[in-house]
Design goal:
Helix content is 33%, strand content 26%. It has 497 residues and is of the alpha/beta class.
Length: 497
């Protein structure tokens, strides 16, 4: 590690009802990957938004390359060489990939945008990232994982001296994460300062040099990664040790009835002849690499995307699900992997989002019974330990993990018997993960049934009773948890039929 390139000292920031940052310190050196860790709501993303001019600080100083600075917008930060890759995707779906990457700084030719050069520059960036994305493709047509890789390419396209990665690997496959790590190591070798925000403890040990831990908006301490253990870091984050042992036996009761049966489901190239059953009280894990068709299968089942053929049975009765409303009427709830686009309305309150799927139950004539709505919202805030000043708080002001809890609350309030959880802990810290795992186990103990799509192998092995494995739109394996290993899951996930 080289000399100090960035110092944040005594940074303080408050929003209405929330003291988001309480005199936080951070030091980043050239040629260093510096982890910034803490539970959801600890203030990590807020601190980085203060750094890059998205938010103004109330107190404290920022010193960059030996001089005190304060940016008023992200463009100023970018021009100075500080770039952030946000956890929440900020791309514009109606524009192409290349247009998103170079927006505001497009190459020009004769007074017009040079699309050919722009597309070529984008291809070079993707070559560096070792991924295949068509620069002319509309951003809205890409998966969440590929959109995230475009965010990373956009950040790298700036002549940056400090890059902030805010949960960059949350939607990436293991292979894509390895490629990301190669890029980060190259950037570190060029004496770039890197701030790496992640909840994945194994990543922190592999890629970072030092770790700064935050808790409840405050600074806890900084550790040298090589000299600290996973438990050291977790204890600083949450004040307790969390154990994540894999499940060794199914907890489904013998003879449990089939609550959902899917036969020969087809929906384009990503869902080809998929069949499976879900039993009462079961967590059925869906595993596979990015692009395996897991999310597409869930969306076709839920009626979010049209199916071409196939039959769906709920509690033994054949049902027609053409829209999400049909699915909800059948007692199926869907927690999307992309909460911002499909899960919540960020301009609405916690209470309004909680009752969104069952609003008719809270109506008094043409008016909403706000007292009852607030009561049920408060119940789920307490049950899920959602960090919010109150149920009247706008969801946009919550951290990503707490927004995820609001989405879960919405489907719990609807009291669906079948729940599809698509990447339920994406972008959520170890403490909140443990709470959501506990909640999922409580739900199946009460008789509800869960389909859980997850890209994290440890999550699949910890939570599932059975595992359906997909590859390139087809079901390639079905494994009872008693026989499941990382090796046989990965074998099925790479088995092309």
């Amino acid at each position: 590690m080289g000399e100090v390139i960035l110092t944040m000292k005594g940074i303080d920031k408050s929003f209405p009802g929330v003291h988001a940052l309480d005199h936080v310190d951070l030091e980043v050196r050239k040629g260093e990957v510096h982890a910034l860790m803490g539970e959801n709501g600890a203030g990590k993303s807020t601190l980085m938004k203060v750094l890059t001019g998205i938010y103004s600080k109330d107190e404290g100083t920022i010193t960059y390359e030996g001089r005190e600075i304060e940016f008023t917008n992200p463009r100023e930060a970018q021009d100075a060489g500080i770039v952030i890759v946000h956890q929440e995707l900020n791309m514009m779906g109606h524009l192409t990939v290349a247009q998103n990457i170079f927006i505001g700084r497009e190459p020009m030719k004769g007074g017009l945008i040079d699309d050919g050069k722009m597309n070529e520059e984008a291809r070079k960036l993707f070559g560096m990232l070792n991924i295949e994305i068509d620069p002319t493709e509309k951003m809205s047509r890409l998966t969440v994982g590929k959109q995230q890789m475009c965010e990373i390419a956009k950040a790298i396209s700036h002549d940056a001296k400090v890059i902030v990665f805010d949960e960059p690997s949350a939607a990436l496959t293991e292979a894509e994460i390895e490629e990301l790590f190669k890029i980060i190591r190259d950037l570190r070798a060029k004496e770039m300062g890197i701030v790496y925000i992640s909840h994945r403890m194994d990543e922190i040990k592999v890629i970072t040099d030092r770790v700064t831990v935050m808790r409840d908006g405050g600074y806890v301490g900084t550790l040298v990664t090589a000299e600290s253990t996973k438990d050291d870091i977790i204890n600083m984050m949450v004040g307790r040790v969390i154990y994540e042992d894999p499940k060794t036996q199914s907890t489904v009761k013998p003879g449990a009835p089939v609550v959902l049966k899917v036969e020969h489901l087809n929906a384009g190239k990503m869902v080809q002849d998929v069949s499976f059953e879900l039993h009462k009280g079961e967590i059925l894990g869906f595993s596979g690499l990015m692009g395996a068709g897991r999310t597409e299968t869930a969306r076709a089942l839920f009626g979010a995307d049209p199916k071409e053929s196939g039959e769906i049975y709920v509690n033994g009765e054949k049902v027609e699900i053409k829209t999400p409303m049909d699915a909800v009427k059948c007692g199926i709830g869907y927690l999307s992997e992309d909460r911002k686009r499909f899960g919540i309305v960020t301009a609405k309150t916690v209470a309004e989002n909680t009752t969104m799927a069952c609003l008719e139950e809270y109506m008094k004539g043409i008016f909403i019974d706000s007292r009852r709505e607030n009561e049920v919202a408060q119940k789920y805030v307490d049950d899920l330990k959602t960090k919010t000043p109150g149920v009247d708080q706008l969801v946009v002001n919550l951290s990503g993990g707490n927004q995820q809890k609001v989405v879960i609350a919405k489907w719990l309030a609807k009291n669906c018997d079948i729940l599809i959880f698509d990447e339920p802990t994406r972008g959520i810290d170890v403490g909140a993960k443990s709470e959501i795992y506990h909640l999922m186990n409580e739900l199946v103990a009460e008789g509800k049934s869960i389909i859980m799509i997850s890209s994290e192998m440890t999550e699949i092995l910890r939570m599932s009773d059975r595992i359906v494995v997909m590859c390139e739109g087809k079901k390639t394996g079905e494994i009872d948890i008693a026989e499941a290993t990382q090796e046989n899951i990965m074998h099925a996930a790479t088995l092309r039929k």
